[in-house]
Write a structure and sequence with these properties.
single chain; Aspartate Aminotransferase, domain 1; 2 domains
């Protein structure tokens, strides 16, 4: 049995330029799972009883299937990739060509089936609590250079503070960090996170 196709995904694929063929092929594999095809975060998302299992998306260098509980999935071929060091649960299967996806079709299906089995079993990814997070002194100093920004920053949730600190601190040059901080000031003052 196949999943019912979502019209929003049809529209998304119609306008996708860079990875159109690859994402369409990943969709063809995904609809064989009998999951509900949805459209969330501007990407095709596949759900079971309202729970997000995986989505397909494209980036500059690759397209991917992102498994929401990838950290606890079986990964016999060691293909799952942790997108960044801060991602605890999600893992990606990455592809750079249509031929690569077609070649790995059986593997992709197996990983999708594993994601379904984890959800049906009710398994959850154990969340590692962050230790007390200390804002690097250099970032604190720069935020204090702008009137009212440091107090507003301290009112943000710890997760939002960490996200901003990582974003600012990952800049390779000081002028890039300064630019990132200046661009973020309106959101910080409004109590918003980096991705809000």
């Amino acid at each position: 049995m196949r999943s019912e196709r979502n019209k929003k995904v049809d529209a998304f694929l119609k306008h996708e330029k860079r990875w159109n063929d690859e994402l369409a092929e990943l969709r063809e594999i995904a609809v064989t799972t009998n999951l509900t095809e949805d459209f969330k975060w501007m990407h095709p998302c596949y759900t079971l009883d309202g729970k997000n299992l995986f989505l397909i998306h494209g980036f500059k260098e690759y397209c991917a299937v992102l498994f929401m509980k990838g950290a606890i999935m079986k990964d016999p071929k060691k293909l799952l990739i942790q997108q960044t060091a801060n991602v605890q649960a999600g893992r990606q299967l990455r592809f750079t060509s249509l031929a690569e996806i077609k070649k790995q079709k059986a593997t992709i299906k197996a990983y999708m089936k594993d994601a379904i089995a984890l959800e049906e079993a009710g398994l959850e990814v154990p969340v590692v609590k962050a230790k007390d997070f200390v804002i690097p002194k250099e970032i604190e100093k720069k935020l204090k250079e702008f009137s009212g920004v440091w107090p507003a920053f301290k009112k943000l949730t710890p997760g939002r503070q960490r996200a901003y600190a990582h974003h600012f601190g990952s800049a390779k040059q000081e002028k890039t960090m300064d630019s990132r901080i200046e661009k973020a000031i309106p959101a910080i003052m409004a109590g918003k996170g980096l991705l809000d």
